[in-house]
UniProtKB/TrEMBL annotation:
Domain Response regulatory: 5-123, 134-253
Protein name: Response regulator receiver protein
InterPro entries for the chain: Bact_response_regulator, CheY-like_superfamily, Sig_transdc_resp-reg_receiver
Signal sequence residues: none
Tree of life domain: Bacteria
Sequence positions bearing 4-aspartylphosphate: D56, D183
Keywords linked to the UniProt accession: Phosphoprotein
Biological processes per GO annotation: phosphorelay signal transduction system
Length: 285
């Protein structure tokens, strides 16, 4: 397994130790700078080369955003990411980080799955392939969310699954998202409201609407027709097969590409559908 060199700009020694351990399991060797003073003066950093630099947005009493430009000058080939605690207070800062060219966002505390996903993006970027397409799946059924992720991840999508719309909308507020795949019937904010909000606030994002029921049934057909009128690019009946899910996502992305051109992340060239054999993708869900 390829090992990546990572620099953590994190002012908590305890958190830095935990994150270094998690990132090591994901395939990174980490060095840590616990303060701006260490970042600027630690001798080990002078000649070091890094593949990934992760900056805490609240770093040693300053905004980590102020260091992004300097990090890029010191390590121009490194992928730069930011870390933040799970608070809506940082949404504006995360948007600014994206505008400054930051490629990755990690919410603290993060686990091994999130670290592995980030490292996969680093590998893709360094290989010249760019960040993987990011799919956000919203379904109040954890089983349905797991099935969707099991179809998309083996096909080189980064996948984030939510069981409620409110948390997913928060993610859209700061992270780069290429496609939203949402169930229509959910407690609280339902799928129709999600579609209208995404179309209004993030018009470049592709949307796939899902609903259970027999294809052609009056209720399911009416709901999907309404979803399309709200701005969904593709419609999907549950239960679905892997090929149906992949085709719906591809259609949605291609539809947005036709509208917005280069503002939409290009589809992976020559991507062939693959199925993760650990997941049974034809399920009555």
């Amino acid at each position: 397994m390829q090992v990546f060199k990572c620099l953590l700009l994190e002012d908590s020694a305890t958190q830095a130790k935990i994150m270094s351990s998690i990132l090591k399991q994901a395939g990174c060797e980490c060095m840590v700078a616990l303060s701006v003073r260490e970042y600027k003066g630690k001798p080990e950093l002078f000649d070091a080369k890094f593949d990934l630099v992760l900056i805490d947005i609240n770093y040693g009493g300053i905004s980590g955003l102020e260091l992004i430009g300097d990090v890029k000058k010191r390590w121009p080939k490194a992928v730069v990411g930011v870390m933040t605690a799970d608070s809506t207070d940082n949404y504006s800062g995360l948007v600014e980080a994206r505008e400054r060219g930051v490629k990755l966002v990690l919410r603290k505390p993060f686990g091994l799955e999130e670290a592995r996903s980030a490292v996969s993006d680093v590998a893709s970027i360094l290989a010249g392939g760019g960040v993987r397409l990011h799919a956000v799946v919203i379904d109040d059924s954890k089983t349905c969310g797991k099935v969707a992720a099991g179809v998309l991840r083996p096909n080189d999508y980064r996948v984030t699954v939510f069981d409620n719309a409110q948390d997913a909308i928060g993610r859209l507020s700061y992270d780069h998202v290429d496609v939203v795949i949402t169930d229509l019937f959910m407690p609280g904010t339902n799928g129709h409201e999600v579609i209208k909000l995404v179309r209004d606030v993030w018009p470049h994002v592709a949307i796939v609407a899902m609903t259970g029921g027999t294809e052609g049934s009056d209720i399911a057909g009416r709901e999907l027709k309404t979803a399309k009128s709200h701005g969904a690019n593709a419609l999907l009946y549950k239960p679905y097969g892997a090929e149906e899910m992949l085709a719906a996502v591809r259609h949605a992305l291609e539809a947005q590409k036709e509208i917005y051109g280069e503002k939409v992340t290009p589809l992976p060239g020559g991507l062939q559908p693959k199925v993760d054999n650990r997941n049974k993708v034809y399920l009555d869900i």
